[in-house]
Amino acid sequence: MPRSSTYDIVLDAGLFTPAGLQTCAVGRLGFQAGTRWLRDHVCSHRTLVSEHRMGFVLWSWQLRHEKPLRFADADDAVVDVRARVRGPRSSQLEVETTISGPAGVAVRTRAASVPLRLSGDRALSGTPTRPPDWFVAAFHADEVDRSPHRSHVPSLRAAFERGGERLTPDVDDPPTFRVHRHHCEVADQWYWAESLGFAGGAREECVRRHGGAAPELRRALADGIRRVDATWLRAGQLWDLVRVRTVAYRHGEDVAFVHELGLADDDDGGPHAIVVERT
């Protein structure tokens, strides 16, 4: 049976919006959970980085809200996390986390990361690599899956463009966000969970601008976002000015927001991240 790490967390008001757990907070809790599983069962993240010169970069993340969990519902919650290596060469680390309240599982997340060989500099510069044999050997047989993890973002985006109804026009002045140190991790690169916050801020600006013409957009503020799929293509750096271009679609009974995060002064460089939010 795959190994898990299970522990309680105390819930505070800063983790929530009126609709439930903040997406950015769930990202932070999930990252902490994956770090804890590695420490408990394989090797601590600090040891991997400082002694083995190996890091992981997140490239795919999914969130699903299952049952309501609001600030008034409970004093604490239970986190359960499992991990496995995936792909023909065990070149992906996948971490699945649940956060449970009194009604059962409230949130599920799945994160996929790829390993880097670190150069040893303070910026934690690295190049893609396959994990060493000792790392893969630390996973039990039922924690190894030879099929690769695949991001849902490309297929979701194609489905919205093909079968959805666009609700928002292009704008000349999309919102921008400066990457400050409180948005970063130890290497002065953006902490991926904070980029979820940039996308959420862009969604709120989108609703403020276009909610009058498309009232269903307001549901994304009143009821919250139920599902998130994200992929990271490049990291943002300290002081970068990030521009978020957002398109909203009506797709079946859902409203979907597709956010492209890129540098404000680099229109040709391609997105750094794509975040898809659905009601």
Q: Care to give the gist of this entry?
A:
The protein is an alpha+beta fold.
Relevant terms:
279 residues, alpha+beta, 13-stranded mixed β-sheet, two-stranded antiparallel sheet, 6 helices, 15 strands, 23% helix
Give the SSE string.
EEEHHEEEEEHEHEEHHEEEE
Radius of gyration: 19 Å
Structural class determined from secondary elements: alpha+beta
Mean of all residue-level pLDDT scores:
95
The percentage helix is 10-25%
Q: Beta fraction of the residues?
A: 35-45%
Low-confidence stretches: none
Largest sheet: 13 strands, mixed
Total E-strand runs: 15
Distance between the amino and carboxyl termini: 34 Å
Chain oligomer state: single chain
Q: How many separate helices?
A: 6
**So what's the overall shape?**
globular
What would your notes on this structure say?
The protein is of the alpha+beta class and 279 residues long. It is 23% helix and 37% strand. The chain is built from 6 helices and 15 strands. The protein has helices at 23-41, 45-50, 133-137, 153-163, 192-210, 219-222; strands at residues 4-10, 16-17, 20-21, 54-65, 76-86, 92-101, 104-118, 126-128, 144-145, 165-166, 176-178, 227-232, 241-251, 254-263, 273-278. The longest helix has 19 residues, at 23-41. The protein is globular and about 55 Å long. The relative contact order is 0.15. The model has no long low-confidence stretch (mean pLDDT 95).
